[in-house]
Amino acid sequence: MEFILDTADAEAVRDLSEVMTIAGVTTNPTIITRSGKTPEQVFSEMDAVLAPEQKLFMQTVATDYEGILADARKICSLRENMYVKIPVTHDGMRAIKQAKREGLGVLATAIYSPDQAFFAAMNGADYLAPYVNRMCNYGDGVQWVRELHTMLELNQLPSKICAASFKNGNQVHELMLAGVGAVTVAPDVVRAMLDHPGTKVAVEEFTSAWEAAFGRRTFA
Ligand code: E4P
User: Fold this and answer.
1) Beta strands at 55-59 and 82-87: parallel, antiparallel or unpaired
2) Residue 218 confidence class, pLDDT cut points 50, 70, 90
3) Residue 134: left if φ>0, alpha if ψ -120 to 50, beta else—which one?
4) Hey, which CATH number is domain 2-194, 3.20.20.70, 3.40.50.2300, 3.40.190.10, 3.40.120.10?
5) 116-134 in b/e burial notation, b at 16+ Cβ within 10 A?
6) From which residue to which does the signal peptide run (predicted)?
7) What's the complex ipTM?
């Protein structure tokens, strides 16, 4: 499974990459505009912190077929392991087909149902990003992604699910348990999953007992 960070914050990527195995970074237009940086700045900061094998995903902004393709070609020319995120509108679905004919790496995004994702998989998208938390406004987002996982397996479609739009670690946990191919998670949700107060307490108990017995807080 690939664990991806959903952020425009390069510092967070650097910090979390030191303690976790991160496959790449996803952004979207909202994440970039909220960062207060230009897309060029975000790209260059991410490119500097990511290893060449780590993937970077940036999203098209144009909404018409030709414009989406122009954005997609530009995005994919920026570096190796660069993927374009294309929303699954009608123009986007057409553009996904053409982008795949051109050999671009594609993530189909803004997915609100398993069926939309399935159609994008039939068009050859490499990744499918169902918006788990947003789907929960319409039904059980986690369950729908489990169903998508089964639909892809039964139909032998090779697209990888990159479940997105998580608001808590439990949603991520449920989909890791379901065996989806990838998740993209914001750094604050990742930190909430990574850190547990019990770990800190346990480590302090060990160290204090050691210090009381041997007068030092190191093994050696
Ligand atoms: C990632 O690829 C998506 O763009 C992102 O997870 C959407 O998340 P949001 O629902 O928090 O905007």
Assistant:
1) parallel
2) very high
3) alpha
4) 3.20.20.70
5) bbbbbbebbbbbbbbbbbe
6) none
7) 0.95
User: Which residues partner with 83 through β-bridges?
Assistant: 57
> Does the CA dihedral 59-65-71-76 come out positive or negative?
positive
CA–centroid distance, 125 to ligand 1, in Å, is: 18
pLDDT per residue as tens digits for the range 108-161: 999 999 999 999 999 999 999 999 999 999 999 999 999 999 999 999 999 999
Q: Is residue 165 lining ligand 1, measured as CB closer than 6 Å?
A: yes
Q: Clarify whether 85 is annotated catalytic.
A: yes
Strands (E), the chain: 2-6, 24-26, 55-59, 82-87, 106-111, 127-130, 160-163, 182-185
Pocket test for ligand 1, best of 2, 5, 9, 28 (most atoms within 8 A of CB): 28
Catalytic residue among 37, 55, 74, 85: 85
Angle between helices 169-178 and 187-194 (to 10 degrees): 80
Output the residue whose Cα is nearest ligand 1's atom 7.
Answer: 165
